Amino acid sequence: MAAPTRRAAAKRHPARARHPVTADVNKILGRPARTFADWVTDHVKLFDGPDDND
Q1: Over the Cα atoms of the chain, what is R_g?
Q2: The organism sits in which domain of life (predicted)?
């Protein structure tokens, strides 16, 4: 069975559909939105396992 396309998945799950990019984040925060990759880079320690030095 072939994997469903994004468009087909979006029709079945409208909440997962792509949304247009807006300037709302910039208006609210006063700065451009960050990418998820940038956020993860800044918060990578939150995802590390227990540290042996603790």
Answers
A1: 18
A2: Bacteria
Domain chopping of the chain, boundaries: 23-47
Enter the tokens of residue 10.
Answer: 């979006």
Under a CB-based contact definition with an 8 Å cutoff, are residues 25 and 32 in contact?
yes
DSSP 5-46: PHHHHHHH-GGGS-----SHHHHHHSSPPPPHHHHHHHTGGG
Answer yes or no: pTM beyond 0.70: no
Q: What is the pLDDT along the chain (54 residues), one digit of tens a residue?
A: 566 676 776 677 666 667 777 889 899 999 988 889 999 999 999 888 776 565
Tell me whether residue 19 is exposed, middle or buried, using C-beta atoms within 10 angstroms of its C-beta: 0 to 12, 13 to 18, 19 or more: exposed
